[in-house]
Amino acid sequence: MTDAVRTHALFKRYGQQIAVAGVDLAVPAGSFAGLVGPNGAGKTTTLSMITGLLRPDGGVAEIAGHSVWHDPVAVKARIGVLPEGLRLFERLSGRELLIYNGRLRGIPRADVEERANELLAVMDLTASADKLVVDYSTGMRKKIGLAAALLHNPSVLFLDEPFEGVDPVSANTLTEVLRRYTASGSTVIFSSHVMDLVERLCDWVSVMSAGQIVAQGPLTDVRGARSLNEAFLDLVGGAPGGGEAGLTWLGSQSGRTPGQAPGRTPGQAPGRAPGQGPEQGPAS
Ligand SMILES: Nc1ncnc2c1ncn2[C@@H]1O[C@H](COP(=O)(O)OP(=O)(O)OP(=O)(O)O)[C@@H](O)[C@H]1O
Predict the structure, then answer these.
(1) Is the CB of 173 under 6 A from ligand 1?
(2) Name one Pfam family in it (predicted).
(3) Measured from the CB, is residue 16 less than 6 Å from ligand 1?
(4) Which one of 23, 132, 160, 216 is at 20 to 30 Å from 117 when CA atoms are compared?
């Protein structure tokens, strides 16, 4: 079967900084796929190149066998995107936004209205449908963004951090919608830092580190006998206890004035409170 998404040697440089260093991504159709990696690994840059938002410096990206950069119309008809830092038409209401998106996609007005109403209901946005998007909360923006990305029934849906700022109830709604969507044979690819979430939702995982794919395949293979979080830390070289190095000044607030080292008053030797020997308890 053709992969829903495939890239070969995808490359992007910003000045001296190589953001994506030859990525070979493969996501089978019908997958619920997670793209994970530490901050700055190149996930957003990769997704931007695959969705036609950013021109690669090298390599190829294909959606269902269509080249993103040579056959952009065919690709854009097949994909839905919920990008990072989502920009929406703020002065439209949620309903107007969906109808506008649907009409831009060439969907007949009656169909757009029907789909918009259904999506608003599923996303629990019916009561806010006529409110301006500028007045939506973070979670509501994610939901209307997802509704807009789903309206034309794409075969591949790209989501950059879709659950960020979304409350547990709304996250549950989004999860259900996405599960239904992949169960029908469509593909979801989402980036996230939340390993528990990826482990719970995804059946396919691609792990990126320093601009490259360091592991990719079915979740159970990538994870092995470990949790995905442990596998991730092994793969990306997260030093166990790395957060304990340095920062000796951090914490120990008691008996200290601002700017003073912990546990010390001016003129006192380090490590002992005035008038207190090592075995001495508090004065009674
Ligand atoms: N527009 C830009 N100009 C210069 N450097 C950039 C630009 N966009 C990204 N980078 C650099 O490219 C590298 C990859 O960034 P990218 O945003 O793709 O990472 P990411 O994996 O999505 O990170 P995060 O998890 O923090 O969102 C980083 O080193 C980043 O500083």
Answers:
(1) no
(2) ABC_tran
(3) no
(4) 160
ipTM of model? 0.97
- Looking at the DSSP bridge assignments, the partners of residue 146 are none
**Residue 196, domain member (yes or no):** yes
Q: What is the pLDDT of residue 153?
A: 93
Establish whether residue 216 lines the binding site of ligand 1, counting it when its CB lies within 6 angstroms of any ligand atom: no
Task: Specify the residue with its C-alpha closest to ligand 1, atom 6.
Answer: 14
**41 in contact with ligand 1, CB cutoff 6 A:** yes
> Cβ atoms within 10 A of the Cβ of 237, count?
11
Whether residue 78 lies inside any domain: the answer is yes
Q: Is 56 inside any structural domain?
A: yes
pLDDT given for residue 174 in this prediction: 86
Domain that holds residue 186: 3-238
CA distance 131 to 175: 24
Of ligand 1's listed atoms, the one at least distance from the Cα of 20 is 14
Q: Report how far ligand 1's centroid is from the alpha carbon of 3 (Å).
A: 26
What is the 3 state secondary structure string of 92-146? CEHHHHHHHHHHHCCCCHHHHHHHHHHHHHHCCCHHHCCCEHHHCCHHHHHHHHH
Please report, for the domain that includes residue 51, its CATH number: 3.40.50.300
Residue 275 lies in a domain: no
* 46 CA → ligand 1 middle, Å: 10
pLDDT band at residue 274 using 50, 70 and 90 as cut-offs: very low
The neighbour count for residue 107, using CB atoms within 10 Å, is 19
Burial tier of 185 (Cβ tally within 10 Å: 0-12, 13-18, 19+): exposed
**Ligand 1 center–CA 44 separation, angstroms:** 7
- The pLDDT, as a whole number, for residue 267 is 47
Each residue of 224-247: pLDDT tens digit?
A: 999 999 999 999 886 555 566 678
Higher-confidence residue: 169 or 100? Answer: 100
